[in-house]
Each structure stands twice: as structure tokens, then as C-alpha cells.
Write a structure and sequence with these properties.
Length: about 220
Amino acid sequence: MEAVVDNLDLLLEGFLRTLTLTALAATGALCLGTLVAAMRVSPLLPLRWAGTCYVESVRNTPLTVVFALAVFGLPKAGLGLTFFQFALLALTLYTGTFVAEAVRSGVNSVAPGQSEAARTLGMSFPQTLGLVILPQAFRNVIPPLASVFIALLKNSSIASAFGVAEATSRMGSLIEDNPSAVLWLLAAVALGYVVLALAASLLFSRLERSLAVAR
């Protein structure tokens, strides 16, 4: 326990890095996933094919492989980024596929009469999707999106294997310096992830209730 208290500042610094990485990746994945979902329901066949190819190829690739391709493959192509930026890119690309499928399911849950009414009013497909369909779709997919983003929080721990000093990486360094306190350090980091996950779950639950009232 003493090792945890003595190194609490380092653990908190690691969790702050974890939160930063998760928040940025979640924002990027939400934007990317929404765009890909729009492509998958587009009337244009090439866009549907491109969206399907991206989702099926990346979603079915292990996240560790996606990280390795980003960290070791992209520099070979001339893209020079920091380890943190590579980790952010990998998490965004991977999580974006799950967001895309969640949003697409929400789009499909909206009554067809909504889009038919929009077309009757002379709206184009982008206008119908952006102004009529997506606002309703997001309300329907808050629970699955919550699960996706909580999984993202836990997946961010993989970044420690690629040189990003987040919570899991800090724990590894502290265990090397305090081998006798390994159980306490593991418990402290596990508790930290549990607290963050529960906080995220509570946030999404409140958001879901507020939107349900708004309807």
C-alpha cells in the first residue's frame, strides 16, 4: 500500500494520459464512424462498398495488429508522428468501425416514413440524413455507443506496449521499481479503470434519460 501512496502522483499522471487519449480517440471515432455509417446507407454503391470494406477489414483485425501497423508501418510510408499520435490514430481507426455499425443500426431503426416525408419536402439525401435521420438515430444508440467508448477506455491500455506513458505503462514501471508491491499496484490500477468505466456509464445513463425526456 505504501508504494501506491508514494507514487500516487505518477499513477494519476498515467490516468490523466489515459483519459486524454480516450477522449481524443472517442471524438475522432465518433466523427469517423458517423461518416462511415452515412457511406454505408448512401444510395451510391461505391460509397457503400468503401464503407463496408473499411468496417469489415479493420473491425476483424486484432487491435494489437492495428497498433503495430500504425506504429511500425506508417513510418515506413514516410509518416512521422509521436507514439501518442500513432496510438490515437490506431484507436480512432479501430473504434470508428464499431461506432459506424452502432450508428448504422440507429439509422435503420428510424421509421422509413421519416425519410419519405423529408424527400416529399424536397430534401436531398445529405439533408435528410443530417437533419432528420441522424438526430433520431443517435438517441436510439446511446447504450451501444456507451459500451463502445467504455471498451475504448480499456483498449487504451494497449498503448503502453508501444511507448505511451498511460496508466498501464506507469504501473509496469512502478512494479519494476517496487516488485514486492505488485499486488497493491495492480489493484490500484484496476480500481482506477473501474472508477473511470463506472463514471462513463453513469454519464451515458444520464444522457440517455435526458434525451428520453426530451422526446
